[in-house]
Each structure stands twice: as C-alpha cells, then as structure tokens.
Amino acid sequence: MTGQIVPPGTRRFGADGASHFFGYYNKSPWDPSGRWLLAHRSPLHGGALTGEEVAEIGLFDTEGDGAFQPLAQTQAWNWQMGAQLQWLGSAGRRIIFNTRDDTGRDPVFGTPFHARVLDIDTGATRDLPLPVYVVAPDGAAGYCVNYARLAHTHPTIGYFDGASVSAPSDCPETDGIFRMDNATGEIASVVSFAALARLDPRDSMQGAVHWASHLEVSPDGGRLLFLHRWTRRVEDETCFLHRLLTCNPDGTALRLLECSDHPLPQLDDTFDPEAVGLFDYEKSEYQISHPLWIDSERLIVWGPHDGVIGYHIYNDRSGEVRRIGDGSLNENGHMSFDPSGKWLLSDTYPDAETGLRDLFLWDDTDGKRLLARLLTDPALVKTDRCDLHPRWNQDGTQVCVDSVHEGWRAMYVLIAP
Predict the structure, then answer these.
(1) Which of 23, 47, 78, 155 could potentially form a cystine with 82 if both were Cys, beta carbons 3.0 to 4.6 Å apart?
(2) Are 403 and 40 in contact (CB under 8 A)?
(3) DSSP 274
(4) Which top-rank group of organisms is this from (predicted)?
(5) Domains, the chain, ranges and CATH?
(6) pLDDT for the residue 417
(7) How confident is the model at residue 2 (pLDDT cuts 50, 70, 90)?
C-alpha cells in the first residue's frame, strides 16, 4: 500500500482468517524470559460485541514456528483491551484474564464477569470474584472496575451481557474502584464515585454519569493512578470530562493532578453528534488520556495543562508538571518509556485522508525517529478499531503492535533501534 513503511525484520504473529491481538498499550505481552507472547484470537474481523462472542487466550513462541497455542476461552473481552490479559507476578508462568460465568453474579457490581488465574504449566485454574483491570507488579493484588458501567458510558472498553445495556446510577457510593487480593479474593473499596464527586466538585458533575478507567499501579506498588470521567451525554465522546488522580492502594492520600472541565456546546439540542469524526474525540484539545507511570514518582499523560495540550510529565510527589516534545509531539498517542528511561515510544491516530498512522520513538536529545507507518481499515469504527497500542519487551530491544495493515488483525514485533 502506497505510503506504508514496514521496517526490515518485522515479524508477524497471527495467520489470515482470524484476528490475533494483545490489547492495550499499558501491559507487555512478553513473559519475563522474553520468549512467550500472550495473545487473543477471534474468528471475527470486527463488529459490535454482545457478550456471546468467544475469544481464545493463548501464546506465541517467538523461538518456535510462531503458531498460536490456545490455552483458554473467554466471553469477557473487547477489541481495545481484550480480556485484560496479563502475566501474574515475576515468575511468568501464571496469567490472569477476565471471563464470564452466567451461573452467578459478582458480589460487588452484580455482573457475570470475573477474573481467572491460569497456571500455564499445569493447566490449573482459579477464579476470583471480580473482573480485573490491572494487577500490581508483584501480582498480589488486582484493581477492579465495573465493566457493565463501562458498556454504558464508554462501550469501547466495556463488557456486554446481551445486546442491550442498562443505564447505571449516576454517581453511587457503592460503585467505583476496588482492590482485590489475588490470593484470597478479599475485596476492599478504594474510592467510590460519590467520593470522587465530593473532591473539588464541578457544576458539570450534576446530573452526570461517572466512571473510572486507565488504572495503573506504580512500579513499587505504592500508588495507583486513574482517570475519573463524567458526562451528561454518553453518546458523544466529545462531551466526556476528565480528571487525572493518584492515591495509595487503599484510597488514602487521594491527589488531583489535572482537571479538564470545560464548557460543552455539544450539549446544545441543535448539536449533531454524527458530525463528529471517528477520531475527533481522541484529538480534542481537552482530552486527558493514556497515563502511564515512568517510575514510582513520575507519570506521563496526554492532556492539557495551563491551557496547552500535549505530552506532560507529572511528579506525583512534588506536583511539578513539565511538557515534553513541544513542536514534535503534537498528537495524542499511546505512550511509554523504555526500561532505561531514554526513549519514549508512541503512535498517532490515523490521518483522516490517508488512513496511515505513525509508530515512533522520541527523546530530548535525538528528537523523533519514525519506526513504521501503517494503514488502518476504514471499515472499523470506534468500538472495533485496531489501534497500534505499542508495547516494549522486557529489555527495551523490541516493540509489539496490533495492526490490520495486511488485511487481518495481527501482532507484529519490530526491532527497536
């Protein structure tokens, strides 16, 4: 395809005739040894999900023939984040992912979704009471949200229990972020939506539905970051309002780092949400998105600060904020630093005319370095699109992305220069 740049040595994992993907940018598919890649497989190319669709959980052996090795199945997944598939702990022989069980409901959210731990060596499984969003680096705890709420507020990252979705209560004391002990299954509330709304309340929160996403645990396990979002119109993502917060694992020392509350002309009755482009929301001047810890003090996020949108680094302890890449990092992306802290890895959303998106590296000294330029599929929409979601391997020598530039959703591993 004209305009594409695929670097020499790029290796594809996943054959035509099925979709193979990992999911989000915030977790690495590689095990600690660097040999095995976690992945999802679906017979579908895209389309809206109802909860009946089955995805397989499996592995690619990067030292073998590259064939997909299935391990389990799940009905709790979406195209953006999959089943929140991730390695559990540093040994790299157990995985955790979300699944669906229609024989019972979880004890907090009342949904059929929960997490499952699988021992790769023995095949033994153990179920946990809540679905997980992210686990602590040592694997001891998982942080959990209500995926049925997300199916209503932000369906791109929700789980479905049938084609229709019920509207949740707007801002309850009983819903929010929960911490789950991955050994015992014990559950504790971290923060409720009602408590979040009481923290520096805004007029726009009145009559709005609230949710949380982008939960991330600091490398030392001592802090949790997340986005608090709310809206009066879930159908139009440009009406979403955002705050970036951090807290201790038990919800104490809650700290508000950024808020992008702003007037919303889109709420006017004459506004036409159909006039909003597919990626206009991701390119909004008010968007706060894709936060990730750099180390146990600093985090990076795309968002506005002092009226300027861009890549910003926040110090969770001092409150210092610094913009990076002024003049070169001007588009929202899924960003992370390599283990050495030198290179920022990120991507762009597709160009509206060409459908091409860039995968690149950046640092303060060497500037921006293009790794690849890949085509997306214009038939894919918000809920089933295939973002690149670049992820580092453990030693920062390789990058893995999900892409559809060859016609089918597959995983690609590139050498990082």
Answers:
(1) 23
(2) no
(3) G
(4) Bacteria
(5) 11-415 (2.130.10.10)
(6) 74
(7) confident
